[in-house]
Design goal:
- The two termini are 21 Å apart.
- This protein is mainly alpha-helical.
- The chain is elongated.
- The protein has one domain.
- It has three helices and no strands.
């Protein structure tokens, strides 16, 4: 049985983690843009409307930057389903594999690798 807390068994994880963080960030920015879109028409104060509009425009710019980063790193293929499908499938398979891992083994002694007390 592999010890998944051992760094030796984390091969490929930095790239997977980076792509997951970028996707989460992109989704959060999209939600923010959507929320600005709801808030701006409901706002009666002209100054507040200007501030919200400026923030929404900055969020749109940030969305573009994150998308460009993801496209450059081949984590996102927004215009090519044939290239995007394997990326999404790999992400789903990885999530399923992580869900099946025994991440919390009974023996938590890290053998000096981490400051984890013995029980």
């Amino acid at each position: 049985m592999k010890d998944y807390l051992d760094p030796r068994n984390a091969e490929g994880m930095p790239n997977l983690a980076d792509s997951a963080f970028a996707l989460d960030f992109l989704i959060s920015v999209k939600n923010g843009i959507r929320n600005y879109g709801f808030a701006i028409p409901e706002t009666t104060n002209p100054e507040l409307r200007r501030v919200l509009t400026k923030q929404m425009m900055e969020a749109l710019d940030l969305h573009g930057e994150i998308s460009d980063l993801m496209i450059k790193n081949k984590w996102l293929h927004p215009h090519n389903f044939k290239d995007q499908y394997p990326v999404d499938l790999k992400g789903a398979e990885t999530a399923m594999q992580i869900g099946q891992m025994n991440l919390y083994p009974i023996d938590t002694d890290r053998g000096g690798m981490f400051a984890t007390p013995n029980e």
